[in-house]
UniProtKB/TrEMBL annotation:
Belongs to the short-chain dehydrogenases/reductases (SDR) family. InterPro entries: KR_dom, NAD(P)-bd_dom_sf, Sc_DH/Rdtase_CS, SDR_fam. It comes from Mesorhizobium zhangyense. It holds the Pfam family adh_short_C2. CDD domains: SDR_c. Residues 17-198 form the Ketoreductase domain. SMART domains: PKS_KR. This is SDR family oxidoreductase. The keyword Iron does not apply.
Amino acid sequence: MQHLQPHAVQSAFFRDRVALVTGGASGIGYAVAGKLVGLGAKVAIWDIQKERLDECQERYGDRVLTRSVNVSDKAAVSKAMDELTRAWGGVDHLLNNAGIIGQRMTVQDFDGDELDRVLAVNLKSMFYVSSAFIRASGAESSRSIVNLSSIAARTGGMVGNIAYATTKGAAASFTYALAKELAPHVRVNALAPGVINTEIQKDVFADPASIEAMANLIPLKRLGTAEEVADAAVWLLSDGAAYITGVVLDVSGGR
Ligand SMILES: NC(=O)c1ccc[n+]([C@@H]2O[C@H](COP(=O)([O-])OP(=O)(O)OC[C@H]3O[C@@H](n4cnc5c(N)ncnc54)[C@H](O)[C@@H]3O)[C@@H](O)[C@H]2O)c1
């Protein structure tokens, strides 16, 4: 029997499959989109950063379909999914990745509008996009969803990010429940990254000393990279994880 390297196996799996990555214009989503394109998939990228979307389109050409979509807007999500289905016929894989930390808040003194915004972008979007995905995805086998939770779901995250941590806990619960709802046709898993060096963290870790202090709290003694989270996402989306559903996988350097 021919020996296939992991990359070759994944290329054979993803070739001409269609994936949708929300929040794919930067960080983890961008890394996942790039890896999927490299494996031969066609990737729809939804984000709100227009310039970065244009850069993605230029970089990957007709292998990607970029669109400015606010995933917390149900009508916009539905419209964008209709367009995507018309363009490429359906969607096989979904990465529910768009997210924000939101402004610092405590429960004692919270801002209701900001709370609604964080809930809408991080959590309600998962309902909107997953629902549209299910309607748009055909009867192909090996369909899959990966949601971005966080270790903040169990650690509570940093003080001041309680709205964020709450949505990430809900993303894990959403994953357990949706995995049951969609079995056996669609596998649904989540990733719980630890501290990953992307833009969402840029205010938190503006100072190199704070990066070092954080690294010391992580058993593997460093922050993670978007590429490392993307490798786990691509694996969970692929048939390499064919018997795994309803799982939240830490990618956290042991934290
Ligand atoms: N970086 C970390 O340490 C870390 C840790 C745990 C979980 N996560 C999760 O990983 C996911 C990706 O984060 P990242 O680290 O790559 O950060 P990032 O800021 O680089 O990427 C987030 C992307 O989401 C997009 N986005 C924000 N609001 C949107 C909206 N309303 N509609 C569409 N797109 C929107 C942003 O424009 C951005 O491109 C997030 O859900 C985040 O919570 C990140």
